[in-house]
Design a protein that fits this description.
8-stranded mixed β-sheet, alpha+beta, 6-stranded mixed β-sheet
């Protein structure tokens, strides 16, 4: 074997967390990222306690995460009439051993990048280099075709290739050339951040409205001297008629005049959504898209992780978290069984089907399905939510989702480390 590297296609959250995991178990790797420069793009994202646990095991603890976000204290659903449907504490307030963090996605991404460079060296991440295809070798290794920013194509040899290149993954497209097209369920999202006074607990994630017409908002920074936080908001509407969703692209800047009128009614004594949105420097338009679950994430020495494997609607706030979990489960199998196709197969057997089911659950509105249930039963208008959906049913609904997504409290608290401390790939297994 001439090269014992693992090649990673994509330098997003999944790719960078995998690089840190491989370094932990003693495996050399190179990350290939298509953009020429990493920038703090995006808005807010939640990192669930199961993923925060994995980050802490990687040496990225609360002190690091506090620089890019804040612990979430509450998760709440509120009807269109402004009345509570459901709320629960989150993170350590809910009895978890770890916080749930609401972070600025771009700042978190750069935090991971800095850790990769500090631990693996500046040449561990090659920017302006896109893995555009692969070729399996007779000895079980792989050759990756890498397209540079000037259009030149080079080849890189490795023991394994991991596709962490997102929903438009070139690795996935080659592995599954007959995959269905990207799935859009009719919802358009507009995202932004603005300065505002945090409500309720001071660090609450609030979903307000109906399953088809809602806004989600939560702070991603501690209050400043004036009591103002960076508030992340996502306004969503589902359309029955045709909508040119493909023009939205991903994080396409959109003027407020394009969509603000859709949310004029979201004004309460505790929230003035139009005013909050108007204070945003920029807003982005996104279609809510995913892909059908795959029968397999593995092709010999090639595997998919993160959005390349399981792009999902952001209704469960667990897309980034699952990407982190992927890397740690993969690291465990590599440490146990070596840099082999068999290890990738075991990783696939553990996660592919179950995570695909979570993706379908998110397509069905995920935990926001409670909003749909209330809307179906009373049109979203009620005086006492217990007359619409019992407290027991509401709690069981949420527990079912948390269990499926892998962050049910008692199970998570009792679980052993995903990747045992000190685990390393044996040298003979890299020979």
């Amino acid at each position: 074997m001439t090269n014992d590297r693992v090649l990673i296609a994509g330098g997003g959250i999944a790719g960078l967390t995998l690089a840190l995991t491989l370094h932990e178990i003693g495996v050399a790797c190179t990350v290939f990222e298509s953009v020429p420069e990493l920038q703090p793009l995006g808005v807010g994202v939640n990192i669930q306690p199961n993923a925060v646990r994995e980050l802490e095991d990687l040496g990225i603890g609360e002190a690091d995460l506090d620089t890019v976000g804040i612990p979430a204290q509450e998760w709440a659903l509120v009807g269109l009439n402004g009345r509570d449907i459901y709320s629960e504490p989150r993170g350590k307030l809910a009895g978890y051993k770890w916080h749930q963090y609401a972070v600025h996605r771009g700042a978190f991404h750069l935090l991971l990048y800095r850790h990769v460079i500090a631990r693996l060296g500046a040449d561990a991440v090659r920017l302006g280099a896109k893995v555009s295809g692969y070729r399996k070798q007779a000895d079980g290794s792989v050759i990756a075709q890498v397209t540079g920013k000037d259009g030149s194509i080079t080849e890189e040899a490795g023991r394994l290739l991991i596709g962490a290149d997102g929903i438009h993954s070139a690795i996935r497209a080659q592995m599954h050339p007959d995959q269905p097209p990207i799935h859009w369920g009719g919802t358009i999202m507009w995202r932004g951040t603005a300065k505002g006074v945090p409500i309720r607990s001071g660090s609450s994630f609030v979903g307000l409205g109906t399953a088809r017409h809602r806004v989600v908002f939560y702070p991603i920074s501690a209050p400043d001297a004036d009591g103002l936080s960076d508030i992340n908001w996502i306004a969503e509407k589902t359309y029955d008629d045709q909508h040119d969703w493909e023009k939205s692209g991903w994080f396409r800047p959109a003027p407020l005049s394009d969509f603000a009128h859709e949310f004029e009614g979201f004004v309460y004594d505790w929230l003035d959504l139009p005013k909050l949105m108007a204070q945003s420097e920029v807003a982005y338009e996104n279609p809510m898209i995913d892909r059908d679950p795959l029968p397999s994430w593995v092709d010999g020495p090639v595997a998919l992780i993160g959005d390349a494997a399981h792009p999902m609607y952001p209704t469960g706030s667990n897309g980034a978290s699952q990407a982190i979990i992927d890397t740690r489960v993969l690291g465990r199998h590599l440490a146990e069984s070596g840099l082999t196709s068999e290890s990738l197969g075991r990783f696939n057997d553990e996660l592919c089907v179950s995570v695909g089911q979570v993706a379908l659950r998110n397509r069905g509105a995920g935990p926001f399905g409670l909003l749909q249930m209330v809307d179906d039963r009373c049109g979203g208008v009620f005086d006492n939510i217990d007359d619409v959906v019992s407290e027991t049913d509401r709690k069981q609904f949420m527990l079912a989702y948390q269990t499926a997504a892998g962050f049910a409290r008692d199970t998570l608290n009792a679980a052993p480390r995903t990747l045992p401390k000190g685990a390393r790939v044996k040298k003979e297994e890299m020979a």
